[in-house]
Amino acid sequence: MKIQLLKGDITKVEAEAIVNAANSSLMGGGGVDGAIHRAGGPAILEACREIRARQGKCPTGEAVITTAGVLPAKYVIHTVGPVWQGGGSDEAAYLHRCYQNSMALAEAYELTSIAFPNISTGVYGYPKSKAAEVALQAIKAYRDDYPESTLQEVLLVCFDEENHTLYDRLLNA
Question: What string of H, E and C letters represents the secondary structure of the chain?
Answer without folding.
Answer: CEEEEEECCHHHCCCCEEEEEECCCCCCCCHHHHHHHHHHCHHHHHHHHHHHHHHCCCCCCCEEEEECCCCCCCEEEEEECCCCCCCCCCHHHHHHHHHHHHHHHHHHCCCCEEEECCCCCCCCCCCHHHHHHHHHHHHHHHHHHCCCCCCCEEEEEECCHHHHHHHHHHHCC
